[in-house]
Design brief:
The chain is of the alpha/beta class and 246 residues long. 43% of the residues lie in helices and 12% in strands. Strands 2-1-3-4-5-6 form a 6-stranded parallel sheet, sandwiched between helices. The chain is globular, with a radius of gyration of 17 Å. The two termini are 14 Å apart.
Amino acid sequence: MTILALHGLGGSSASILSYLPKDLRSRVVAPDVRAHGASPLLGAGDDFALEALAAECADALAAEHDGSPVTIVGVSMGAAIGLRVALSGRFRIDRLAALRPSFTLESLPANLAVFPVIAELLERHGAKGALAALRASGPYDAVRSISPVGATALESQVTQQLAWERRVRLLEIPRNRAYRPGELGALGAASVVLASPRDPVHPLHVAEEWAAGLGCRMLVSPARDDGAAAVMAWYREQLGSFLTGL
C-alpha cells in the first residue's frame, strides 16, 4: 500500500503527517502543494485550479510509486485535491480518507469566504499589518465566536513565513469546486470521512455531504477547542484503523 497524504490550505507535508500513525509514515508520499511548505512554485489563476494542483501531486506520487494500490488521505484542501487525483484514473485507488473536508459543489462557499479576505488584507497592509487588520474584521470575529482554535489557524495564514508572497493561494484556491454532481458516487473505493464539531471553516454539513456522496461512514472527533492533543490522537487512531483494515 502506498499512501498519498495531502495537507490543507496554508499547511505543509509536516502538518498532514501529524495525522498519521508513526508506523505507517514510511509508506507515505506527502508532497508540498504549490506555494506551500518547501515548494518554490508560485503562479496565478489557472495554476491554482484543483485539477492543476492534483496533476502536480499525482506527478510527485508517480515519481515514487511502486505500483501498489494507492490510499489517499487528505485534510481540507488536501481532501479536494486527493479526490481529483483519485478520479483522474492515473492510479488504482484502494481507499480514500477525507479529513475535515471544506470544499463543496460551490465556488467559494460561505465557510471559505474568509480566505480571499485575508489575501486582500495581506495585499493592502503587508505581512506586518495584516494580522491586526484580520483581528478587526467581521469574518475573523465570526470564526472566533465559534472556535478560538479556528481563529488562531486563520492568524497563521498571515504570520507564517512567505505569507505575503504566497497570498495568491488564499485568493484563488477557495474558488474551486471540489466535485461535480455524481462524482463522489463514481469513486468506487472504500472511504471514510472524519470531521470535527464547532469548526466553522470545516463545518459538519460539508462533511455530511461528502459522506452521503461517497456512501461511507462519517465519524466525528471531540472539538478541537476542547484539547488539540486528544483530537490529534483521535484522528491517528481512526486513520490507523481505517488504513490497516476495514
